[in-house]
C-alpha cells in the first residue's frame, strides 16, 4: 500500500509540474499590451526602457541651475567683523554658490529635464542629453515618449553619436512634436550629412544649431536647397548656426543660393570655416542684387500670369473703399455727368456764373435722386438697418463696422520689381537677413569689396525709403580673417555698420563738448 501511494503522489506531482509549465509557456507566448504614453516623460521613459529590455537605463534628473546670488546687505544692519576661528569652534557651513557631487556620479549618463512647473511632471519644456551614445534602442524609446510631451520646445543632443539612421528617425520624431521650435545637435558628425531633413518646407523649427558637425560642401548644398529653391522655401527657420565646420567657397555659394528666395532667415553664422573671397562675393551678391537664372525667369513669368501684375509696391485697396457708400457716390456722380451732358452747359466760368440758379436747381434734383437710390440700396443691403436718418460719412461705416488690422503677407521675391540690364533681369537681394557672422575664415580684400558693395546698396535703398523687402543687414562680423584689423575697407565697413547696429549707443559727450554745443546750438 505504501508503494502504491508513493507512485500516486509522484504522478500527481508530475502532473502539476507539467500543468504549471504549460501555463508559463502560454504566458510567455502572449504579446504584451502596447503602452500608451501619458505625457509624464520620466514615467514613460522608464517604462518603455524596461519593456525594450535595456539593462542600463540613464537616470532622469532635473537640469542643474546656478544658485541665485545672495541679496545685497542691508545698510542699516551692522556688519560684524570676521573673527579668527579657534580650534574648538564647529566647522563652517559649506558655501551656497556651488554644489558638489560624487565624481563617478557626475560622469554617468543622464537625461536632464527642464520643467515649467517643478511640481508638475507633465510640464517638460526642454530636454538635454550630453556625452553618451543614443543608439537605435534609445531612439525607439524617444520616438514614443517625446511626442506625448505637449509643452516640449527645445531638444539639445550634444555629442550623442548620431548616425544616418538615428538622424532620420530623429527628424521624424521632431516633426511629430507640435511645439518643438529649437534643436541643437552640436558635435554630431553624420556621414550622410542629412541635417536638411529637419528644415523642410513644412518644418516648424525656428532655431537650429549644428556646430562642430563636420559639415562639408555637400551638407551645405543640402541645407541651401532646404532653405529655398525656385519653387519651394522654408518659412519658419530664423536662426541657423553652422560654426566650426568644413564649409569652403563652394558651400558658401550653395548657402547664398538658399538665401536668394528665402525671406525668413534672420541670423546666419558660418564662423570658423574655410570661406574665402569667392564665398564672400556670393554673399555680397545676394545682399545687393542678383540676376535671375533661366529657371527663375520662367517661374517669374508663371507667377506674373497668375497674379496679373509684377508690381508689388502698389498698396492694396483699403477696406474703407469697399463700404456700401462708395459705389452709391460713384453712381450719383455718373448721374450728374449724364444730366450735365444732356443739358449741354458749357464749362467756362462766365457761363457758370450766369446760369448759377439753374445749376443749383439741377444739382438739388440730382442730389435727391442720389439720396433716394442710396436709401433703397441701404434697405436692400443693410440687413435690417434703417433707411432714414441723416446723410453723412458716419451713417454706418465708422460706428458699426470696426476696422480690421491688415495682415502682412509674405511676397514671393520673384514678384519684386525687376531691372533689365544687358539682357538680364536683376531683382533686389535679400534684405531680411539682419545678422551675418563670417569671422575666423579666409576672406581677403576682394571679399571685403563685394561685402562693402552689398552694404552700400542696402543703405541706398533704405535712404530712398524702400523697406518693402526688409531693413537690411544690421550686424556683420568679419574679425580674424585674411586681412589686418586696420585695413581701409574693413574700417569703412565697420563705420557703416556701427550705426545700423540696433544695440549701438553713441559715445557720451564730454562736459567741454556739451558746453560748446549749448553755446553754439549745434
Q: Report the radius of gyration as a whole number of Å.
A: 37 Å
**What proportion of the residues form beta strands (DSSP E)?**
5-15%
Contiguous uncertain segments of 5+ residues = 310-360, 369-408
In spatial order, strands of the major sheet run: 1-2-3-4-5-6-7-8-12-13
- Provide the residue-averaged pLDDT: 77
| Distance N to C terminus | 129 Å
Rough shape? globular
- Per DSSP, the total helix count is 16
Structural class determined from secondary elements: alpha/beta
Summarize the helix and strand pattern as letters.
HHEHEEHEHEEHEHEHEHHHHHEEEHEHH
Summarize the structure.
Helices cover 40% and strands 10% of the residues.
Topology overview:
Blueprint lengths: L1 H28 L11 H11 L7 E4 L40 H4 L3 E6 L8 E7 L5 H10 L8 E5 L5 H13 L5 E3 L22 E3 L7 H11 L11 E3 L7 H12 L6 E3 L7 H11 L1 E3 L2 H14 L17 H19 L5 H6 L1 H26 L15 H4 L18 E3 L2 E5 L6 E3 L7 H19 L11 E3 L10 H11 L12 H10 L2
Parallel strand pairs: 1-2, 3-4, 4-5, 5-6, 6-7, 7-8, 8-12, 12-13
Antiparallel strand pairs: 2-3, 9-11, 10-11
Helix pairs in contact: 2-4, 4-5, 6-7, 7-8, 8-14, 10-12, 14-15
Amino acid at each position: 500500500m505504501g508503494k502504491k501511494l508513493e507512485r500516486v503522489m509522484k504522478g500527481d506531482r508530475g502532473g502539476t509540474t507539467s500543468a504549471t509549465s504549460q501555463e508559463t509557456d502560454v504566458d510567455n507566448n502572449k504579446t504584451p499590451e502596447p503602452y500608451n504614453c501619458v505625457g509624464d516623460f520620466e514615467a514613460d521613459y522608464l517604462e518603455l526602457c524596461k519593456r525594450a529590455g535595456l539593462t542600463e537605463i540613464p537616470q532622469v534628473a532635473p537640469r542643474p541651475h546656478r544658485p541665485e546670488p545672495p541679496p545685497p546687505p542691508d545698510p542699516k544692519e551692522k556688519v560684524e567683523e570676521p573673527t579668527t576661528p579657534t580650534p574648538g569652534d564647529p566647522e563652517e557651513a559649506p558655501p551656497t554658490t556651488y554644489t558638489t557631487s560624487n565624481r563617478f556620479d557626475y560622469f554617468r549618463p543622464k537625461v536632464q529635464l527642464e520643467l515649467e512647473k517643478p511640481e508638475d511632471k507633465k510640464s517638460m519644456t526642454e530636454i538635454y542629453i550630453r556625452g553618451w551614445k543614443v543608439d537605435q534602442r534609445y531612439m525607439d524609446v524617444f520616438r514614443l515618449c517625446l511626442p506625448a510631451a505637449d509643452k516640449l520646445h527645445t531638444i539639445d543632443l550634444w555629442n550623442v553619436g548620431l548616425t544616418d539612421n538615428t538622424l532620420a528617425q530623429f527628424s521624424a520624431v521632431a516633426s511629430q512634436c507640435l511645439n518643438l521650435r529649437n534643436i541643437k545637435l552640436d558635435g554630431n558628425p553624420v556621414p550622410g550629412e542629412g541635417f536638411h531633413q529637419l528644415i523642410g518646407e513644412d518644418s516648424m523649427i525656428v532655431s537650429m544649431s549644428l556646430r562642430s558637425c563636420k559639415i562639408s560642401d555637400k551638407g551645405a548644398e543640402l541645407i541651401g536647397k532646404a532653405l529655398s529653391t525656385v519653387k519651394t522655401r522654408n518659412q519658419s527657420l530664423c536662426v541657423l548656426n553652422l560654426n566650426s565646420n568644413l564649409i569652403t567657397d563652394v558651400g558658401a555659394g550653395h548657402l547664398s543660393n538658399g538665401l536668394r528666395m528665402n525671406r525668413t532667415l534672420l541670423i546666419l553664422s558660418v564662423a570658423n570655416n574655410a570661406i574665402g573671397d569667392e564665398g564672400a562675393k556670393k554673399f555680397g551678391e545676394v545682399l545687393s542684387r542678383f540676376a535671375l537664372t533661366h529657371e527663375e525667369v520662367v517661374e517669374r513669368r508663371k507667377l506674373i500670369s497668375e497674379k496679373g501684375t509684377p508690381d508689388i509696391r502698389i498698396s492694396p485697396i483699403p477696406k474703407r473703399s469697399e463700404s456700401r457708400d462708395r459705389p452709391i457716390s460713384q453712381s450719383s456722380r455718373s448721374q450728374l455727368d449724364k444730366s450735365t451732358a444732356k443739358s449741354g452747359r458749357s464749362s467756362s466760368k462766365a457761363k457758370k456764373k450766369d446760369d448759377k440758379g439753374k445749376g443749383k436747381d439741377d444739382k438739388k434734383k440730382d442730389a435727391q435722386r442720389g439720396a433716394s437710390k442710396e436709401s433703397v440700396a441701404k434697405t436692400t443691403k443693410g440687413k435690417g438697418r434703417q433707411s432714414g436718418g441723416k446723410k453723412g460719412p458716419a451713417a454706418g461705416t465708422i460706428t458699426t463696422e470696426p476696422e480690421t488690422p491688415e495682415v502682412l503677407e509674405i511676397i514671393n521675391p520673384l514678384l519684386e520689381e525687376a531691372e533689365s540690364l544687358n539682357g538680364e533681369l536683376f531683382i533686389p537681394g535679400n534684405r531680411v537677413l539682419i545678422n551675418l557672422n563670417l569671422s575666423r575664415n579666409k576672406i581677403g580684400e576682394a571679399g571685403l569689396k563685394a561685402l562693402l558693395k552689398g552694404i552700400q546698396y542696402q543703405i541706398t535703398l533704405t535712404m530712398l525709403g524702400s523697406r518693402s523687402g526688409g531693413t537690411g543687414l544690421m550686424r556683420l562680423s568679419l574679425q580674424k580673417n585674411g586681412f589686418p584689423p586696420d585695413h581701409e575697407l574693413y574700417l569703412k565697413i565697420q563705420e557703416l555698420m556701427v550705426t545700423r547696429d540696433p544695440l549701438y549707443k553713441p559715445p557720451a559727450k564730454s562736459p567741454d563738448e556739451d558746453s560748446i554745443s549749448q553755446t553754439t546750438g549745434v
